[in-house]
Write a structure and sequence with these properties.
Length: 172
């Protein structure tokens, strides 16, 4: 049904230096669906995700989210979050402050920040790590903190760019 479609991509194309990377992509994603893009390096997976997130503009086509055309809307104003392949954690902030960063920018009240950070750290099994330096964490732990930082903002859509799930990152 059309009412359960959260993202609708129509006729999306993107070229770099005259080389077409995405050519007339049509795709819809329903609410609650988990979608994975698989393919060889250079086939356009990251380019598609970056266009959905707003970090790249398409040459043609549209990305519509819940009836709203996202073309031209900057990433920070889109109702979604991206977990980057390199996690983009702030090395000068501890785990708590990395996760709370976006909420502080939005000027969410401190008690609400504390509650939400605690909830997502528990969700990713990192509750005991609030005061840890992010550089002291393993790769899987850093990945979980990056995911916590994204979901604490309660996005409608989460775009994990090149995230590689390992046995460690999936530990309960």
């Amino acid at each position: 049904m059309a009412e359960d479609i959260i993202i609708n991509i129509e006729h999306l194309s993107k070229s770099f230096s005259g080389k077409k990377v995405l050519d007339d992509i049509n795709l819809y994603i329903r609410k609650g669906e988990f979608i994975t893009f698989l393919g060889p390096s250079g086939c356009g997976k990251t380019t598609l995700l970056r266009q959905i997130a707003g970090f790249l503009q398409p040459d043609s086509g549209s990305i519509v989210m819940e009836g709203r055309d996202l073309t031209g809307i900057p990433p920070h104003l889109r109702p979604l979050n991206t977990v980057f392949q390199r996690y983009a954690l702030f090395p000068h902030l501890d785990v708590y402050d990395n996760v709370a960063f976006g909420l502080k920018l939005k000027k969410v009240p401190q008690d609400e920040i504390d509650r939400r950070v605690s909830r997502v750290l528990k969700l990713v099994s990192m509750s005991d790590y609030e005061n840890r330096d992010v550089n002291s964490l393993s790769g899987g732990q850093q990945q979980r903190i990056a995911i916590a930082r994204a979901i604490v903002n309660q996005p409608q859509v989460l775009l994990p760019e090149g995230v590689r799930l390992t046995a460690e990152s999936l530990k309960p």
